[in-house]
Design a protein that fits this description.
The complex is a heterodimer of chains A (299) and B (373). Chain A is an alpha/beta fold and 299 residues long. Chain A has 9 helices and 12 strands. In chain B, helix 4 packs across helix 5 and helix 6 packs parallel to helix 8. Classes of the chains: A alpha/beta (299), B alpha/beta (373).
Chain lengths: 299, 373
């Protein structure tokens, strides 16, 4: 088996003077990142390598952290725009998370009935969770109907954070927001639950791409926002291997911690062991030697 | 039924609000905006630096950052203050026979106003009420039922007791406590049906305002508790000891699940422990398992297993050992340990005969422990 590819796109100038990401720069980061990931220079071909034109794609964002520490709307909408430009009809793209309230608090404008890309919370009228309980290994959950009924393909677009229990929260753990009972799966550093939720058919059968929003990163005392332990690496990570993407995200958190003089997660007894579990389950590669990173900085 | 009519029915009749799963799931999304949750500061937590808190209500000791919610799904850190989201927010309300809880030595033949909110601090794979216990506060339809209204409802419904049941009342501690306090002033007793995952301090406070506690002892090995309950045995045993030493009446239920917690040596050890640590007068109910939730691959408990467990417990000196979920079985009835006569004859939840006089066997005068009036 060849190495899993993770593309790292940095842009020191991604943040505008206002402190928010510049949508034009973010769009360039997506175009370049997805080109390098797929090996296809043209956007249409890159998109075709990942999605069918008939796909209905869900972009699962993580908005539990409020405006300061959620997947940024500028990032999610730039990805949606790239998909719409290269592969899909806008009406077949949905940006989603657990609740409309959390989406609003993170800066999104959720609501039904608008043309174009939809932004939707699972708690929207007429949505909700599946009535059938999915029992998979140690997990028993109801899955969001946005995932199971509205989408045929899924992108995990999570913000990168230190997590007091899990060690790291990124693309895989983002799918905790697709189930009704994530609070039940934080024992034992979320291991094996993160891997098992991902491995459950509603997720595994749809997941196509992980993009980790590391424009801003909480590298300590997450998952809540603490300004003094937040950095702005201005980075996006891309991979079709969900384990590799999160492993590279973990390495980035460790670098930021080391730069700040903090002990490693391992030293704190908080390594994200669920990544090794995920590798054992065949979900991807976690060892650095098995991951090919391609790094590029956009001016 | 839409949300408005649901609430109207709940507030009006106030009873028989069930939890049918398909309807529940369809309604999980039916509360636009911020759901109708409470924001009452929780008890038993400590504030930590950086807006973190540590919950001290149950042995989990959830340590939570801002905006995070505890394992129970109904208590949330909001800006460094910990709140219960379900204070006065009942999701189930029924008038049940007290035998259904089950309490067999408390006011037989009466009804208990039985109430619950969402949430639980464990995750039993065989949960009978997972539709309300294993969901977050906003994921189940609920209605406003403040403590005073609950106490009044018990009186108007002719219930001499309120049972905090169905889900795990520990997670709605503040609501239960205040309701029990007000109910007592009205002469209404409070009965707690719990898994026993509660820390000593809140348990001691609770025991000062309630009258009886039924603990679901779900197994007798730590391995079983970790694998099938997502909890721990040790704090449950500690809670049982504490209740047994208190003024509150104690009963214990042991759901016997084929191949998982039915080893005869474990049953024997458990019965011996109950006799030694809680007392031989504590009623022990061996209850029949039915496939449910995440354990659907096992058959209902064979009657022979239940009967063998009962014989084992009687052999360990326990004086009141019952078989539950087997309507019509002779072991549903209470027998006088003095003369062997049936002092309370039960069929299912029905009382066929009571032969007690002031808490004593009408035949031989042996005292039968319990709350009889």
């Amino acid at each position: 088996m060849g190495a899993s590819r993770v593309v790292i796109i940095k842009s020191p100038g991604v943040f505008a003077a206002s402190g928010t990401p510049d949508p034009a720069v973010v769009a360039r980061m997506f175009a370049r990142g997805l080109a390098l990931l797929t090996g296809e220079g043209a956007g249409v071909r890159a998109a075709a390598a990942l999605f069918r034109s008939s796909d209905r794609v869900g972009i699962k964002v993580n908005t539990i952290g409020g405006k300061a520490l959620s997947t940024r709307p500028e990032v999610a909408h730039a990805l949606a725009a790239w998909l719409a430009e290269n592969a899909l009809e806008e009406r077949n793209i949905v940006i989603w998370d657990r609740t409309a309230r959390e989406l609003r608090e993170a800066g999104y404008a959720p609501g039904p009935g608008r043309p174009g890309v939809r932004v939707l919370g699972t708690d929207a009228d007429g949505v909700g969770y599946e009535t059938g309980l999915v029992s998979h290994l140690d997990v028993g959950s109801l899955f969001s109907r946005i995932l199971t009924e509205y989408t045929t393909a899924s992108i995990s677009l999570a913000i990168l954070k230190d997590h007091g229990l899990a060690g790291v929260t990124a693309g895989m753990k983002n799918y905790f927001g697709a189930i009704h009972n994530p609070n039940k799966y934080h024992d034992d550093r979320c291991d094996p639950f993160v891997a098992q939720v991902f491995d459950a058919p509603p997720v595994k059968s749809r997941h196509r791409l992980t993009v980790v929003d590391a424009l801003s990163v909480q590298f300590h005392r997450g998952p809540s926002y603490h300004a003094r332990w937040a950095a702005k690496p201005g980075t996006l990570l891309f991979s079709v291997d969900p384990v590799a993407a999160d492993s590279v995200g973990w390495a980035l958190i460790e670098r930021l911690r080391a730069d700040a003089g903090l002990p490693s997660l391992e030293a704190e007894g908080r390594s994200p062991g669920y990544l090794a579990t995920a590798e054992k389950m065949g979900l991807g590669r976690s060892a650095a030697a098995a991951i090919e990173t391609i790094e590029e900085t956009l001016s | 039924m839409n949300r408005r009519s649901f609430l109207r029915r709940a507030a009006g009749a106030g009873l028989a609000v069930g939890t049918g799963l398909p309807a529940l799931c369809a309604r999980l999304a039916a509360q636009p905006g911020r759901p109708n949750l409470s924001r009452v500061e929780a008890r038993y937590y400590v504030k930590l630096p950086d807006r973190e808190i540590e919950c001290r209500l149950c042995p989990r000791l959830c340590r939570l950052g801002d905006k995070e919610r505890g394992y129970c799904g109904v208590r949330e850190n909001q800006g460094g203050v910990y709140y219960t989201l379900v204070y006065g927010k009942a999701c189930s309300l029924n008038v049940d026979p007290i035998e259904k809880k089950p309490f067999f030595h408390v006011l037989p033949g009466t009804t208990a106003l039985s109430m619950a909110t969402a949430g639980c601090n464990v995750n039993c794979k065989f949960c009978q009420n997972w539709e309300i216990s294993q969901v977050r506060a906003e994921q189940v339809e609920h209605f406003d039922l403040p403590p005073e209204a609950a106490a009044a409802k018990a009186v108007s419904s002719g219930c001499p007791s309120i049972a905090y049941t169905y889900s795990e009342p520990t997670v709605f501690f503040e609501y239960m406590y205040d309701t029990a306090l007000l109910a007592r002033r009205r002469g209404v007793r409070s009965l707690v049906v719990t898994g026993g995952h509660i820390n000593p301090e809140p348990l001691a406070d609770l025991l000062a305002v309630v009258d009886a506690v039924k603990v679901d002892l779900k197994g007798f090995t730590e391995g079983f508790y970790k694998a099938y309950v997502r909890g721990a045995l040790k704090p449950v045993l500690e809670a049982i000891r504490t209740v047994a030493k208190s003024e509150a009446w104690l009963e214990i239920v042991y759901l016997v699940i084929p191949t998982l917690n039915d080893r005869p040596e474990d049953i024997r050890e458990m019965a011996r422990w109950v006799g030694n640590e809680a007392g031989v007068d504590v009623p022990l109910h061996f209850s029949r398992f039915h496939p449910m939730y995440l354990v659907k691959n096992l058959p209902p408990t064979p009657l022979s297993t239940l009967e063998a467990a009962r014989e084992t417990a009687l052999g360990q000196g326990l004086r009141f050992v019952y078989i539950g979920n087997v309507p019509g079985h002779e072991a549903e009835s209470t027998y006088c340990p003095g003369c062997g006569q049936a002092v309370i004859k039960r069929i299912g939840y029905s009382i066929e005969a009571v032969r007690l006089k002031k808490g004593k066997c009408a035949s031989c005068g042996t005292a039968i422990p319990g709350i009889w009036a």
